[in-house]
Amino acid sequence: MPPLAGRQAGAFTRRQALDAGMTKSEVAWRVHSGVWVPVAGVALRHCARVPDEVMEAHAALLTWPDAVMVLGSAARLHRIPVRSDGRIHVVVAPGRRPRGPLVPHRFPLEDSDTTHVLGIPVTTARRTALDLLGRLPETARLELLAWVSSRRILTAGDLTSWVHEHRRRWGNRARVAAAERLGSGAVNPAEERLHAILRRGGVVGWLGGASLLEHLGIPAQADVYFPSTRLVIEVDGRAAHGPDRFQADLARQNMLVATGCTVLRYTWLDLVARPEDVLAEIRRTLAALQARLR
């Protein structure tokens, strides 16, 4: 392979191989024999090299040097958990047609909308989330909303402002719905169900989606928080608390306990299968905490 492949995550072109000193027949033999296989566009890789999002991004840049990674391709570079659709999404100059998995898009990007990840031009995490929230199907959209809100990548105000400034954009109806969810403090069905359990049970004095930085000086957000007793209730789910967050969640819980908080954690199954037990446990915990304050 040409030396440049090492700086391009294993991707390279026929031209680069020729410039490195290989003959046309040597290049042709490697391609026809399957030693070198296509990545996307003009890019090739060694058959033993497994492609990833970085290699695919370099393949896009080798094909279209002006490309900016967007949508799911940008999400994967930012390590935002969005399922791959098998395509490489880029914004490029007009006149480009799809080339296999390479999909060109045409929508305006401001300078503030772009950054670089590993030297690759890509939309920022914020802009990537804004774009995807207007395009993903509902289930994936709710999972993304839970993920980005738990990391403070987007707020309800961010979504509302963006829709106001970009009227008639594709997906704005979904973005408005996402803003309303964030504004309610329940960014996914599990949190909505927990809030409904508390309301039906007549439990008061709680905040949904509360910033603990404002209340306790801790850079975290609680699914439900009772300021008067420092009771935190969390709903554990793969979207907001995925495998990448396990260690961080443990550290976060230890920090909460160290500041005098009591933490209750529930799963979706708890909320669906035994809502009365959940409500009873919350009431008992509140009563015990209130008794300590007297």
Task: Characterize the structure shown.
By secondary structure, the chain is α+β, with helices and mostly antiparallel strands. It folds into three domains: 3-69 and 84-107, no CATH class; 126-184; 189-293, Endonuclease, Chain A, CATH 3.40.960.10. The chain contains 13 helices and eleven strands. The protein has a four-stranded mixed sheet, sandwiched between helices. 38% of the residues are buried. The mean pLDDT is 91.
Question: Key terms for this structure?
Answer:
alpha+beta; Endonuclease, Chain A; 3 domains; 4-stranded mixed sheet; 3-stranded mixed sheet; 16% strand
Q: Biggest β-sheet, characterized?
A: 4 strands, mixed
Structure summary, number of beta strands: 11
Cα-based radius of gyration, to the nearest Å: 24 Å
Strand content: 15-25%
Please sum up the structure shown.
The protein has three domains: 3-69 and 84-107, no CATH class; 126-184; 189-293, 3-Layer(aba) Sandwich (Endonuclease, Chain A). The protein is 45% helix and 16% strand. The chain contains 13 helices and eleven strands.
Write the topology of this structure.
Blueprint: H1 14-19, H2 24-32, E1 36-38, E2 44-46, H3 53-63, E3 68-69, H4 71-77, E4 88-91, E5 102-105, E6 114-117, E7 120-123, H5 125-133, H6 138-150, H7 156-165, H8 172-184, H9 189-200, E8 207-211, H10 212-216, E9 221-226, E10 231-236, H11 246-258, E11 262-267, H12 268-273, H13 275-293
Parallel strand pairs: 4-5, 10-11
Antiparallel strand pairs: 1-2, 3-4, 6-7, 8-9, 9-10
